[in-house]
Write a structure and sequence with these properties.
Layout (H helix, E strand, L loop, with lengths): L2 H22 L8 H23 L23 E9 L5 E10 L1
Antiparallel strand pairs: 1-2
Helix pairs in contact: 1-2
Length: 103
């Protein structure tokens, strides 16, 4: 239980106890004080209920199928490029080419 939900529960319990204590007193009209008290308690109970329900609203849990495992990691040997001569049909060097050599 989080601190916020504990605080809301304590607030709701306090509001309930206060309203029960106010109900047990004889009903008297003292310049509208009782009406304001009950109106405030009702508003607090409604607001507390809304807050209590919104605190615990979490997104729904989504279950997914587990697919195939990822392919294994392939470790390639160290590779480098080497410049080799390129020969023509007569055996003469016609240029160079880069060749990848892996050890």
């Amino acid at each position: 239980m989080t601190h916020r939900s504990k605080a809301v529960a304590i607030l709701a319990a306090t509001s309930l106890l206060t309203s029960l204590a106010a109900m047990s007193a004889p009903a008297q009209a003292r310049d509208g004080v009782n009406g304001a008290l009950f109106g405030g308690l009702a508003a607090g109970a409604i607001a507390g209920g809304i807050i209590a329900n919104s605190v615990n609203s979490r997104p729904p849990v989504v279950y997914r199928e587990v697919g195939p495992p990822p392919p294994p990691v392939v470790v390639y040997p160290e590779c480098h490029t080497v410049r080799e001569p390129l020969y023509d049909a007569y055996g003469e060097i016609a240029g160079h080419r880069n060749v990848r050599v892996c050890d």
